[in-house]
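Thread title: Can someone regenerate the structure for this chain?

I was given the following input by a collaborator and told the matching structure tokens would be attached. They weren't. Posting the sequence so someone can regenerate them.
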Amino acid sequence: MPLTKVLGLAFAFLLALPCMAAPPALQTKQDARALTESVMKLVAVDKIDDAFQVLKPYWHLGPGELETSVMKTVSLRNTIADRFGPTTGYAFVREDALGDFLLRYIYVEKRKNHPLRWTFIFYRGESDWAVDAASWDDNVTQLFPQ
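Best answer:
Regenerated them for you:
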């Protein structure tokens, strides 16, 4: 193989290296909040698969669990699309924390006819925050104080 080709491949590999690196750890609550904001921006433009892929590096799911969740979510969203209407945006509702180890962010996905509630729960074990759960439903009564 000619040297120029080898150097070209090596250069391409070096350029791609940052893309292959592990994502930055979620060291603070602000990091976790930024992650949920990026997810909700994708939800707002109906890029559900992309939204779950953003969560994936921080979510300790077994093989195939994320893909199953994505398929179920896409299927359910297709089912409710006519009744709830298209997504028109999203809004942050609140942050709840239990000690320094459990964190919940709640959002509303605004749709033309009915909102959806999105909940993200993070757990901090030894050091960094990790996604413990992410879910959505149409139970908006839970958004109000009890």
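The domain at 26-143 is CATH 3.10.450 (Nuclear Transport Factor 2; Chain: A,).
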